[in-house]
Amino acid sequence: MAEIDRMLEANERWAQQFPGSKPVRPARKVAVVACMDSRIPLFGVLGLDIGDAHVIRNAGGVITEDVIRSLTISQHALGTREVVLVHHTDCGLLATDDITFAETVEKATGRRPPWAARAFTDVDDDVRESMRLVRESPYLLSHEVRGTVYDVATGRLYEVE
Ligand code: ZN
Q1: Least packed by Cβ within 10 Å: which of 52, 85, 96, 114?
Q2: How many Cα atoms sit within 13 Å of 67 on the Cβ side?
């Protein structure tokens, strides 16, 4: 069975206990930028409810041009004013580097990606770099940003200064 079929079945159960519609503007005026890692159930980890926050995820939770696009829309059109970053231990991007990854893709497909994988070796440093990129973005109304690392072995977050 394809995963989509299992998901459509699960959605039937979800819809039966669906709590109802919420306003489009996030109630807690916060946007979370997090890694796509499958072990980080953000709503539970952060105590979020439906309608509370924007959640922007990508490989590594790194601040790319497209994350800035989403944060800009989040702030200018939908009223958020805080940004919270969630990186984590044992990230897939710790296991490679940008050149090795580009070579792997090129070897398999014949095409070298024009973008960098944005691999990193120190997760705290990468959180600091991501906070810097949010603070320096000229498009945002609010540069209130704090960064965290989630430990996938314990379920605990710690804040990066
Ligand atoms: Zn990750």
Answers
A1: 114
A2: 24
- Domain range for 117 is 3-160
Residue with tokens 């070796």: 121
How far, in Å, from the CA of 160 to the mean position of ligand 1? 16
User: Which residues lie near ion ligand 1 (Cβ < 5 Å)?
Assistant: 35, 37, 91
CATH number, residue 79: 3.40.1050.10
CA of 19 to the centre of ligand 1 (A): 31
Segment 21-34, tens digit of pLDDT: 999 999 999 999 99
For 113-123, what is each residue's pLDDT tens digit?
Answer: 999 999 999 99
pTM of the model: 0.95
List the 30-35 sheet strands across, edge first.
53-58, 30-35, 82-88, 144-150, 157-160
Domain count, the chain: 1
Mind listing the pLDDT tens digit for each residue in 83-101? 999 999 999 999 899 999 9
- How far does the centroid of ligand 1 lie from the alpha carbon of residue 86, in Å? 9
Burial of 24 (0-12, 13-18, 19+ CB in 10 A): exposed
Beta carbons within 8 Å of 110's beta carbon, 6+ residues apart: none
